[in-house]
Amino acid sequence: MNRKILRYYHPSLRKKAQKTETGEKTDKIIETMKKTLCEEGGVGLAAPQIGVLERIIVIDLGQQVDVFLNPEIIERSEETIQSKEGCLSLKGVWLDVTRSKKIRVKALTREGEEIEVEAEGLLAVVFQHEIDHLNGKLFIDRVSFLTKARAFLSYFFKRND
């Protein structure tokens, strides 16, 4: 199963994903997501980005690809960081986005084991970005109207998909 990444205007990206369960179907989705992430060269991917409205994310910060089922942020710091974010669903657009500096995420592993992950810096940003996707939100929703307008103009003039 090979899937294309949905672009920002696709209505599925604005829908809230449903909880997922472990099993063969989920394993196939995960393998597709890992392959797609590798081919596209991103650091994170949420299932809605390939048209699957289930709460699955994969993250690859270089050492290995980590899989999280039904992730939810259960704690966030008041301290924030601003970082340049891009998105495979809005390729070529990079924007400064403010996020919590530290978060705690509760999720299931691929095998169904419940885990908690404390994340800071880049990992925290990636978690927040991907969990936003599961909730029908895009990183471009977190910037001002003027910044968003400039980003869309840039996207349409450089577009190559």
Largest sheet entry: 5 strands, antiparallel
Mean pLDDT: 93
Main-sheet strand order equals 1-2-3-6-7
Sheet-strand content, in percent, reads 25-35%
Superfamily (CATH H level) name: Peptide deformylase
Q: Return the structural class.
A: alpha+beta
| Radius of gyration, taken over Cα atoms and rounded to an integer in Å | 15 Å
Q: Uncertain spans, ≥5 residues at pLDDT below 50?
A: none
Annotation, overall tally of beta strands:
7
Shape: globular
Q: Determine the number of helices (DSSP H or I, runs of at least 4 residues).
A: 3
Helical residues, percent = 25-40%
Order of helices and strands: HEEEEEEEHH
Query: Mind telling me which CATH architecture this is?
Result: Alpha-Beta Complex
Commentary on this structure:
- This protein has 161 residues and is of the alpha+beta class.
- The chain has a single domain, classed as Alpha-Beta Complex (Peptide Deformylase), CATH 3.90.45.10.
- Helix content is 27%, strand content 29%.
- The protein has helices at 24-40, 122-134, 145-158; strands spanning 44-46, 56-60, 65-76, 80-85, 95-100, 102-108, 114-120.
- The strands form two sheets. The chain has a five-stranded antiparallel sheet with strand order 1-2-3-6-7. Strands 4-5 form a two-stranded antiparallel sheet.
- A hairpin with a 5-residue loop joins strand 6 and strand 7.
- The longest helix is centred in the first third of the chain and has 17 residues, at 24-40.
- The protein is globular, with a radius of gyration of 15 Å.
- The model has no long low-confidence stretch (mean pLDDT 93).
